[in-house]
Amino acid sequence: MRPRALLAVVAVLVVAAGVILFATTRGGASDPDVRTSEQRIEVSGGPGVAAPVSLDTTLYLPARTPAPAVLVAHGFGGSKASVDADARDLAARGYVALSWSARGFGTSGGQIALDSPDYEVADARSLIDWLAQRPEVALDGPGDPRVGVTGGSYGGALSLLLAGYDKRVDALAPVITWNDLGQALFPDATGTPPPGDTPAARTFGTDGVFKRGWAGVFFSAGASTAQSAQASVLGRGNTGSDDATAGTGQAQDAPPAATGPGQDAAPQTPPGTPLTCGRFTAQVCAAYTEAATTGRISPATADLLRRSSPVSVTDRITAPTLIVQGEQDTLFGLDQADANARQIAAAGGTVRVVWYAGGHDGGAPGNSVRDDIAEWFDHYLTRTGPAPSSGFAYAVQSGVRAGASTPTGRTIVADAYPGLPGNAPVTTQQLRLTGAPQDVVNPAGGNPAAITSLPGLGGSLGSLAGRLSAFTSELPGQSAQFRTEPFTESTTLAGSTRVTLTVARSPGQPAGAEAVLFGKISTLSADGRRVLLGSSVAPMRVPVPADGSAATVTVTLPAVVAPVQAGDRLLVSVSTTDQGYTPANDPAVWRIGLADTGAPAALTVPSVPGRAVTENTVPVGYLVGIGVILAGALLAWLVARALRRRRLAPEPDPAALPLEIHGLAKTYKGGFTAVRDVSFEVRPGMVLGLLGPNGAGKTTVLRMLMGLIRPTAGTMRAFGEPIGPGAPVLARIGAFVEGPGFLPHLSGADNLRLYWAATGRPPADAHVEDALAIAGLGSSVDRKVGAYSQGMRQRLAIAQAMLGLPELLLLDEPTNGLDPPQIHAMREVLRRYAADGRTVLVSSHLLAEVEQTCTHVVVMHKGLVVADGTVDDIIAGGGAASFTVDEPAQAAEVLTGLDGVRDVAVDGTLVHAELNGMPRAAAVQALVTAGVGVQSAGPRRRLEDAFLQLVGEDATP
């Protein structure tokens, strides 16, 4: 394959995997109160550039202004379109948001200088100048807007650099970014770690191993635009200079797009730029060429990359900083966030650290992290939100999948990030390692090479990457391995492990100046299964004495978060090759052993004790342990907490209703009201259907009833006791939401027992057999869930909600994905459950099933209750009736003559009419008086007819 074609393939993979864009892909309608305007803002070209550069920007305005502003920066390879959803979310919360395509990207002019202070950082400072002139932006003083900045990866580093260079930044939230780009692209894991005892502190050497896989992905994202860019330049010139207007910070209208709607025009490269460089500056292009050909970092490249790194300014960042880093990230690991936190805190800055289960290999942050960022800005920009938690949060993934690529996990919160000034150091334990010295081969040219990860494809192609890693991460003869004893109890690694090794030339081998090695840490189960933690390696250059003696090095292994089960071992391996890095080319054989430090060789293992505060779902490509079931896991925690507090609760009132809701309302930050003034009651024995079109507020009501979110107003009581997060009464409520998630290798019965064990309640209280009998699974309960049909999984999920035989059962769309026979079976399940006086509340879109299953209905529309009553009452409410008569023609004439009656139609012996408020009894009396024999009379409408009349026929149920 030709080099240019290879670059194109890599670029396509980058875009397909979404690896270096900080872009969220959540859906949802945009807030109608958010207004946008497109404009081009001219900024200084920078040193050596005479003409200004035109930046393509979008301004997002909230419903109320003036308001604080937030700059939203995109990731490498993206444009302002990449962060549209994030900017809209911030505007919906009340912020003026400004996004822009950085120079060299999208339709902006200029060249890529890698977040240089002279170029990209200066551009962002000009954007702050521009915001200070806008009447919609709140000011702290003349020329000083109240402004925050956020972004991921490339945009995250810009956030930190901007805060270091411009004191007008009031708060920032950098995501999955670097501390020192030189150290990130040329890492070295040997030497003494920095002081402070933080969890992911890592040694930064001065001459590391080139991370050629990721660096190539970066370069290809810019270089692959060269041909189209040059074509544009030759055809119509550079808009970055031709569209210039006088003065920095002046806006002008954006030019028409050169491609289809919603797409960026072809980026343009200044004339004279070599095709091999794309839109990179000549300095960046030269640095990459040097590194790619030599595999080493020169002093000039180190200086260039350091100026583009937050490490150059962290000692002067004073704005409150929320650092978010991904645990699945082979590009910028947890060590980069650790360094940023240490350096900012050491200079007296306010710092909070969050690790989430994603990253460049695992995906963008989920809703909880986005909420953390928004609340950070709420407190420090609007100055109305509560003080953010100072605690350190990290995510622990499990091996349980809720879908094709969605494992479940839990979030752990500690009181503070260990090791920062004033905080306790990280907790460590010493584990004994065993293993004799071993000879490992470095093949000529470093090929074949081990494959531990595929840059950026851990999230999108995690299955492929995982299979490759399983077979090729340890090539025969290229790896020395050392292991711990089996763990006697489960634990969670959180941070960087360390080990001291010896490296020498194998006897009889020619002298060599240095060894290039790669340290790894894996879990090893009793059955021999091995999982490489984080899919990461720790590269190192080890100078080896020529006299045959051994070099002794302390190696800091990759920082990871991983559960280790009782019975598992930790496996430390040291290999000679890795596909993602530039190897040593000369063939060699190295002898690697454990250092004799006067005590048993030890592995220093970090952990961060904390409390589990939530269960979550994260899109990652690697499974690193075993955890709890997704569906209802958070509820299980709430139930367990409720039971611990139950002794403080009053005795239940036997006469209290199962559910009473009065004046319930929920308004989210930003002003969106999902529920307003909802009131209804549910009595024992009812099967109540909660109906409404999309957006009616049904799911919000259910989430409040389960104690997952707090209402803005109103009261909720179950069995006479208030409902809220952790309320004791939650132990009497069962719930099923968001689809079933089970361990496929366990039977249905074992899954239920495992789920119940997670609640902390006595096994005898589970009533597993009763729940299974109601669900009607029969002998299938003893089969593995992996062989279940969708209908069986749904019924097992209902049985899970029925564990403990709760007196109130809340079900959200329990028949989703079921065929008609399965729906019929589910209907019988719910009827049987309510038959003994229990109560069921069902949210559903299937109106025909609600009509046949439920006894009562509550209809919601636009956050309000528009109807409440029995199914028969709702159906009869419009007055449509049918009469079975002996003289249909005469009956039709009589009904047509009655005042207000309309739409009379004859259908055999049936006569249908819309009574329009007239009681059916009065219509029957009129028919009998006229001599028409009436055999029966009843309502004509279906529940669907009533529903459409209540919410409007244009609603989408």
From TrEMBL:
Residues 659-887 form the ABC transporter domain. Pfam families: ABC_tran, Peptidase_S15, PepX_C. The chain crosses the membrane at residues 620-640. Keywords: ATP-binding, Hydrolase, Membrane, Nucleotide-binding, Transmembrane, Transmembrane helix, Transport. The lineage of its organism: Bacteria, Bacillati, Actinomycetota, Actinomycetes, Pseudonocardiales. Residues 239-251 have a biased composition (Polar residues). One of its GO terms (molecular function) is ATP hydrolysis activity. Residues 233-275 are annotated as: Disordered. This is ABC transporter ATP-binding protein. InterPro entries: AAA+_ATPase, AB_hydrolase_fold, ABC_transporter-like_ATP-bd, ABC_transporter-like_CS, Galactose-bd-like_sf, P-loop_NTPase, Xaa-Pro-like_dom, Xaa-Pro_dipept_C. Belongs to the ABC transporter superfamily. The keyword Membrane applies. PROSITE patterns: ABC_TRANSPORTER_1 (PS00211), ABC_TRANSPORTER_2 (PS50893).
